[in-house]
Amino acid sequence: MLRMTLMAAVLAAPAVAQELRAPDQITGANDAARSAALFTEMGKVLQHPRCLNCHPVTGGPTQGDDMHPHNPPIVRGEADFGAAGLNCNSCHGTENIPYLTRTGSIPGHDPWQLAPVSMGWQGRSLAEICAQIKDPARNGGKDLAAILDHHARDGLVGWGWAPGEGRTPAPGSQQLFGELTRAWIDTGAVCPAG
Amino acid sequence: MTTLTINGAERTLDVDPDTPLLWVLRDELRLTGTKFGCGVAQCGACTVMLNGMPRRACVTPIRTLAGADVTTIEGMSGREYDAVQAAWRALDVPQCGWCQSGQVMSATMLLQQLPAPTDQQIDEAMAGNICRCATYHRIRTAIHDAARTLEG
Ligand code: FES
Ligand code: FES
């Protein structure tokens, strides 16, 4: 059942799915250029709808590969957890749950909530996202080691590659994303221009 | 086998672990106050309280509920719930009634979290509960009325 679900998800993957290259495939004229190129590769994940949908800048979450507004309409709420009376956990549990009455699934993970406003990425350039990610005032007080840990091991980040039936996974794997992040940090954690 | 508490009574259920709580409530336990509307977390008709917070029973497999505390409309009590029930009755909020046990769950949680909600806060809280009969205006009025009785 799980294998069929995964196969269906892979087969159903639309054009937005892209390959994620490994760090050794990414070159640059010098460390700084390579570092920026590594972050640009990481951007395939950071700007994928699976990640962006819960990193809104204003308002509530979006859904789908076309990032349409969440239905039912959901506001962020004070705790990044939906409105009073309609918190995220009204519908989202601790794991993806396949629907029984039609194809698809409702996504879930423990925890399940929006990224804070300071980590809102929708509509932002990769350079702006990079600056946000590196800024402890906006990234939840994380240094580079904590960012690596977050990218490589955080469960909700990892959900992006196991999003349940009916959703395109983020490109590559969390392990590869972690390796790219490590290489980006090792080369100076340089942000791309623009 | 899953053991959980439903309306204060411990229940051990021998059903397929993937069976949604909604199926168990209605088909096994005959607690039919909780309704089926869509099965995909889009309408809110199946809302129950899970460990004190609203939860769509149609997307909640029984295997995830070991040790959980579930309250359906048949087992609801408490200050906010009583105020909501009284306001609902006074205004004759339901039309066909199908969506209403879900509406009452969300309204009760809203008043527990926000004792005096504005129109906008009510709309945001109730956005996940669809009413085919469009009783939305009466729902909003009833929530304001319930909030006023809680003040006093
Ligand atoms: S039946 Fe569960 S939300 Fe519609
Ligand atoms: S009263 Fe009929 S669906 Fe709400």
TrEMBL record, chain B:
Record's keyword annotation contains Ubl conjugation: no
Domain 2Fe-2S ferredoxin-type: residue ranges: 1-76
Iron is among the record's keywords: yes
CDD domains: fer2
InterPro entries reported for this sequence: 2Fe-2S-bd (IPR002888), 2Fe-2S-bd_dom_sf (IPR036884), 2Fe-2S_ferredoxin-like_sf (IPR036010), 2Fe-2S_ferredoxin-type (IPR001041), 2Fe2S_fd_BS (IPR006058), Beta-grasp_dom_sf (IPR012675), Diverse_Oxidoreductases (IPR051452)
GO molecular function, one term: oxidoreductase activity
Pfam families reported for this sequence: Fer2, Fer2_2
Gene3D superfamilies noted in UniProt: 3.10.20.30, [2Fe-2S]-binding domain
Keywords: 2Fe-2S, Iron, Iron-sulfur, Metal-binding, Oxidoreductase
Protein name: Isoquinoline 1-oxidoreductase
